Amino acid sequence: MISYHEKSEVIISVGDVADLNVSPVRPANGSGASNHSVGGRILCMVISALYHHGERAKNVNNTWGKRCDKLIFLTSRKAYNLSTILMPESIQDTYNKLWEKVTYGMAHAYSKYFDFDWFLKADDDTYVVMENLRKFLSGYNTSKPLLLGCRLDTQVDNTSLRIPGNATNSTFMSGGAGYVLSREALRLFVEVAHQDPRCVDRFTWAEDINMGQCLESANVTLVDTRDYFGRARFLPLTPRELSILQPRPVHDNWYNTLSHYRVNDGRHCCAESAISFHYVVRPMMDLMEFFLYHLSPNQHY
């Protein structure tokens, strides 16, 4: 793949989120509503499971998901008040069926929503700042084959991610942080990569690694989504794990080890235009929503 650069749930406190120097790009009128014309139309596809419908999917639906142009949940059973794409009976809500879920969702998006510009795949514990995603995507052409997200490697400095199959020296975008396909990348995935048996018949749980390898075979470009200072926009960890003022302990190094780029600690962990975080569930998702969209400093009473 070619790359180019653009110029576990934990106990949390309010400070864990408040310390992050992240803010959404706000419309000129000062409201918190997204300008859906910026960056093109985005279809958000969220992987969820039946036992999470009562909390995680509902939280996504009530927070960042409402800023998508279209939000759908990929799951096995229809849930009240949620827009769902039902999986066939053969695709169960289990970890080992993630790849089948994602490929089914991408095929559905290609069939029903190909008039959209961008296709975001996220988990139900991903938090996305949609305004920042739109602004970032506005600099790219959806007719180009692009994959955007948090770039990881399965093998870095002789330390490999233990996965079944032959996936050494592979590069991919973190599934937990969420990744985005352009319209052309989606077309290539469905029409080219997904027709290749080597792409379809893969280990089932590592959907993000599979997606990276399948799109690589279709000559899709991986985009460097960091900001000008090399700070990440797509984050595969929670704000708590990223916003601490002191460097992380040496043993807490899976992100450091697998990241394709150098990982920064503390306040330099994330771009001010950060787009996504992973492992964000209640109450952290509610806190992020409050601090990003409802708390305004220096306002008159």
What class do helices, strands and sheet pairing give? Answer: alpha/beta
Largest pleated sheet = 8 strands, mixed
- Determine the mean pLDDT: 79
Strand order of the largest sheet: 1-13-7-12-5-2-3-4
The tally of domains stands at 1
Q: What is the CA-based Rg, rounded?
A: 18 Å
The ordered string of helix (H) and strand (E) elements is EHEHEEHEEHEEEEEEHHHEHHEH
Runs in which pLDDT lies below 50 for 5 or more consecutive residues are: 1-19, 27-34, 156-167
- Mind telling me which CATH architecture this is? Alpha-Beta Complex
Subcellular location: Membrane
Keywords: Glycosyltransferase, Membrane, Nucleotide-binding, Signal-anchor, Transferase, Transmembrane, Transmembrane helix
Membrane topology: Single-pass type II membrane protein
Pathway: Protein modification; protein glycosylation
Which keywords apply here?
globular, alpha/beta, eight-stranded mixed β-sheet, 301 residues, Spore Coat Polysaccharide Biosynthesis Protein SpsA, Chain A, membrane, transmembrane helix, glycoprotein-N-acetylgalactosamine 3-beta-galactosyltransferase activity
Structure description:
With 301 residues, the protein is an alpha/beta fold. It has a single domain, classed as Spore Coat Polysaccharide Biosynthesis Protein SpsA, Chain A, CATH 3.90.550. It is 27% helix and 16% strand. The protein has an eight-stranded mixed sheet with strand order 1-13-7-12-5-2-3-4. The protein has a two-stranded antiparallel sheet with strand order 6-14. Strands 8-11 form a two-stranded antiparallel sheet. It is globular.
